[in-house]
Amino acid sequence: MNVKSDADHTFVRRMEQLVEMAGGRGQLAAKSGLSRSVIDKYLQGASEPSRPRLVALAGAGPVSVAWLATGKGEMSAEPRAADDDGAHELDKWLFSRVIDGIRRTYEKVGGRLQTVNEVELGLEMYHRIVAVAETQDEQRGALLMALDQLERELLEKGRRAASGKQSA
Fold it and tell me: What does the CA dihedral 64, 70, 72, 73 come to, rounded to 10 degrees?
């Protein structure tokens, strides 16, 4: 029983560090897409996150999923240094899914995105995912969370634009 208590306590300590890195509980909630009450439960040790929520929390840091879950490995999820020649090999499977997901998300909300902006957004999202997720399953989860966040942002932007048009 003590082992679980120690594990719970160390997860809470890692969550406290994550909250500090994110700029507070409200900021972590906003960045991760989770509610403030869920964040509070994790900080109290009353609950532990599911895998998709763990990925969302880690991405909000950004810290590595492995570190947040276990305390092992590197804390930072900053992209690793390039090879000596400065080149990174792009994971074509992941990048194609990122671009496809962005296109589908924009179609779903009725938005349009220029190709150059699509590629820039795709590369940004790709690098964030690679920074926090190591396995293909983790990458899928991180991609789904990133696309959900993108959809929420686009819908909110649309609502703000619509309310601006009505008041003018």
Answer: -20
Token duo for residue 105 = 């998300």
Query: What string of pLDDT tens digits covers the 168 residues of the chain?
Result: 344 455 556 899 999 999 988 889 988 888 888 899 999 999 999 999 988 888 888 888 778 888 888 888 788 765 444 444 434 578 888 988 999 999 999 999 988 888 778 888 888 898 888 888 888 888 998 999 999 999 998 998 888 888 875 544
Contacts of 151 (CB under 8 A, 6+ apart): 105, 108, 109
Q: Find, among 41, 40, 9, 46, the residue nearest to 25 by Cα.
A: 40
Query: HEC profile for 75-98?
Result: CECCCCCCCCCCCCCCCHHHHHHH
Class of the CATH-defined domain 2-70 = mainly alpha
DSSP 63: B
Within the chain, all domains assigned CATH 1.10.260.40 are found at 2-70
Instruction: Compute the distance between CA of residue 128 and CA of residue 35 in angstroms, rounded to an integer.
Output: 21
